[in-house]
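User: We ran a pulldown and think these components assemble together. Before we commit to crystallization trials, I'd like a predicted model of the whole complex to look at. Sequences follow.
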Amino acid sequence: MQTMIEVEGLTKVFTLHNQGGIQLPVFSGIDFRARQRECTVLFGESGSGKSTLLRLLYANYLPTSGSIRVRHRGEMVELTGAPSQTLLDIRRETIGYVSQFLRVIPRVSTLDVVAQPLRERGVDQDRAHQRAGELLERLHIPERLWSLPPGTFSGGEQQRVNIARGFIVDYPILLLDEPTASLDQRNASVVVELIREARQRGSAIVGIFHDADVREAVADHIFEIDPTQKSESRAAS
Amino acid sequence: MSSSPIRAGYNFAYLDEQTKRMIRRALLKAVAIPGYQVPFGGREMPMPYGWGTGGMQVTAAVIGHDDCLKVIDQGADDTTNAVSIRAFFRDLTGVETTEQTEEATLIQTRHRIPEKPLREDQILIYQVPIPEPLRFIEPSEVETRKMHALEDYGVMHIKLYEDIAQFGHIATAYGYPVQVNGRFVMDPSPIPKFDNPKMDNSPALQLFGAGREKRIYAVPPYTDVRSLDFEDHPFEVQRWEASCAICGSEESFLDEVVMDDQGHHEFICSDTDYCRTRLAQQEESA
Amino acid sequence: MSTQPLLQVREITKLYAANKGCADVSFDLYPGEVLGIVGESGSGKSTLLSCLSARLAPDSGSIHYHNRAGESLDLYSLSESRQRQLQRTEWGIVHQHARDGLRMGVSGGANIGERLMATGERHYGNLRGTAEQWMSDVELDIDRIDDKPTTYSGGMQQRLQIARNLVTHPRLVFMDEPTGGLDVSVQARLLDLLRRLVTELNLAVVIVTHDLAVARLLAQRLIVMRRGEVVETGLTDQVLDDPQHAYTQLLVSSVLTP
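Assistant: Here's a predicted model for the assembly, 781 residues in total across the polymer chains.
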């Protein structure tokens, strides 16, 4: 299976310049690989840097040192130092990211929030809305809510909207940060299905799941981040 | 043409020779760039701004011993201003004056073009209050000069658009903007739009003088002068239902004159010479 | 990617005094991209915007714009006539104060139609029709088409300014604090409008703002300026979520959240 993500010697240290320049190291020297048709679960204690690693993979955070390469349009591309235009293209075409919390853009309807990634790829409104509706239905968001902005929804509903938005495009790489955290059993299963389908299609998935059952159901590899030492990947049992 | 001696102590046509040369240079430039406003060193004339000082300076610069001068004000030779200006030039040049358009070689006018078509050997000199057609919408001189230089005339049609939006038709009745020689947009002075077509391709030389603003511009003979309009609201001249009460003309520009305290009014030709000539022709053939 | 950048900015410097103005700014802007220039007052962002939009010649550096015909134009080698033509046809400029970007003395319809009239449109009916279309696109009441902008509210004036600029289908729009000075709810609706238009019309936008929330909402990329210099640049979410430079960190941490 092709390697989709290749991380070498990745180190992240936050420097707070306005608080006397104190440094907050997160992890150092991480080597990591994600392949097609595989789901890698990031594992570690709270604060170990799981979310940070995901954000680094999405170019939302900048590495302090080390290399992150992703397979984009057939070639391995280095994220660090890549021009903005390249990064935006990678996000549009290659990497999808489901954050832990939905970033609420006010006054935009749920349907439009979910459809947006398709619209950005040039898909017309009707088709994008249709696809969005299919996903929302699967995630048990009733149709009467589709025209409302998700700002007033419950945490679980917002998260399901977030998930729909993340899965609407068939990304070759999918990054998932606690996608089932506020979901009940029924909806967590839907997410597991979605992950399996994506994996089946050939995507490489990297995710953080607090729920042991979900982890069991989707993980092909567990990657443990030990903040004090170099981290290792092991196969899921 | 004979001329009488001029009043003692004055130069011919009041202005000194150097000033006349300066004005002529400005006139040449104006003729070379039809419709373009040429700044000139306007002089103090023995009357306040607003009474025709610009037109007078142009006349003073071009008038010669052999000329025959006609002066009209709103088409009439006998208003106070027309009479005064005519007398001024007669005293200070000794040149012949006339009320007949046919006889004149120079015609200084305020706010009208004579009805009788002009000839190649005639010069029409307009008195202009505000030379800048864009002033109504752009107060900055720096900006309007740039707009003319860059042919940035979108705003002129704004004025016409606003008229149609407000009144249903283009309401500008006088001082109707024109484009000269396909290039510069010009204010033809406050002549009624009725007169605009006379400017187009006229055999006569047309000169414009604005005294207060110190600008001179010109339309050479046989030059294209087009009134601005919209495709679906084309330029139209005024029409009257009445005809002239004196000579019966249905083709000239008519003034409405109140006759008495009961409010009776009549329509009379604005161009006094034209009216008088027509009447004379009718009486002759009667 | 084979798309040509729309705007190529190289080492633009315009200084009024040390640290006043902008120094050594370089970036590329691609079609459909929104670039935010953020910074506090005096950072030089408005100076930079003026240089980019051919309204202020820089001391040094160059700006190349790729026009609709595919030509690469060196902005400051162009004649003033061509610069104005660009500003009027392929670009839009939305000012912070509507009165700087509108003719306050003529009707809303005339404001929108002006660019068309300036580029040769001579049919009143068409002009009015187009103006009505745009007014409804920017969510202005068509009944106000004959009213002067002095009778419009601040938010309406901004919408009118936007319509006036978009009527010639520009590819690049420069905005200077377009929501500054407006009430919060009015700001919100205006931002919604801008977001919609940017997507629907595939506009490239350079937007100057001191408001990070506006930047996050509208811009994909950010340039952070301080005292004339670019201190940080990158994707909007990266600059705001993981600021590297001390000043950026200060800016981000200073934002109030209700």
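Helices of chain A lie at 50-57, 84-93, 110-120, 125-138, 155-167, 185-201, 212-218. That may be worth checking against your pulldown data before setting up trials.

User: Thanks, that helps.
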